[in-house]
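Worked Example 4.2. Consider the chain below.
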Amino acid sequence: MFRLSNLLSSVVEDKKERTLEGSIAIWNFTNRCNLTCLHCYSRADLNSVDRLSTEDIVETLPKLKENGVKFIIFSGGEPLTRKDIFDIAKSCRELGIITYLSTNGLYVGRNNAQKILDNFNYIGISIDGSEETHDYFRGVKGSFKMSLEAVKLLNSYHQTKVGIRFTITKDTLDDLPFIFELAEREDIPKIYISHLVYSGRGLENLKMDLTKEQRIQAVNYIIDKAFEYYESGRDIEIVTGNMEQDAILFLERFSQKYPHLKEKMRERLQKWGGNSAGRKLLNIDSFGNVKPDPFFPETIGNILEQDFSDIWRDKPNTLLHKLREHPRNIGGKCSECEAIDICNGGSRSRAYAIYGDLWAEDPSCYLSDAQIKGAIQ
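Applying the procedure from the previous section yields the following structure tokens:
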């Protein structure tokens, strides 16, 4: 995740930035879902059967804690379809693990809103544009209204725990301004914008991904909004995901506004380190498979068959060793890129999907050599 709003304010105001002291686990607790989203990497549906028992999960949590996992993102499928989800969250809290809930919001209501807020440090609800766009993208008519009502309901408790999640594709690109207008109108404190990764139904719908020209236009718009919110004092945080190259474009734009702080920002971005799959990020899917990120084409173990400490810390395989190099040894344009210490080569999952090579360049990198040089020189 690239927390551009936090980086902007912390560098300009010379404050300590929000850093990840530890690792994030994205855990797909279920593959069951009440929607059929076009970009779904897990191909979730309502007929899926949960493979991991409550006991399987709860017994693994202390092992995650021992291995430096500080955050768990509850994902799916739709995690609220599990009847034991609050028990799992409670176990996380007892261990001091921060819990994030990623949900479509359709199972959020007045009967469980307070319980959700009590059990999760943050709740991200997916909104993929206007009503027409969202319902088409999510595959269920009326889902926009239900998701937005969930956002409003949770936000009405004024605990600043709620944000909206938006996946940017050709189908949703024109609705990008709508997302920001919605956050402004409803005083939603956070916007997370995810770039498409080629996996699951996202791979089947590869044609929906942005062109490089569209992407740079979209990211410039997002950066413009970050500057606007900061300069006006508007308290809306902007985060982008699955496109670490956004940090390079952000550096270029930042240096134009704050040239005297350019080197300080670059140092912060180098410390951030770009793509962290297999290093500070891991995924556990609904079958117990451990992967470097949710989209990754290879598994590195299974919690039902191996001790998590062996998988992650004590006996890491060759793949993890290579992923943990910084900067990584990536081919193509990355091999000569002067900014690879910032983005770390981007997504290995996209590289594999397009080139069949985990160590090829990220095919979605939208920056020209001239833009990269302009950012770092």
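The longest strand covers residues 69-75. The chain has 16 helices and ten strands. Compare this with Example 4.1 before moving on.
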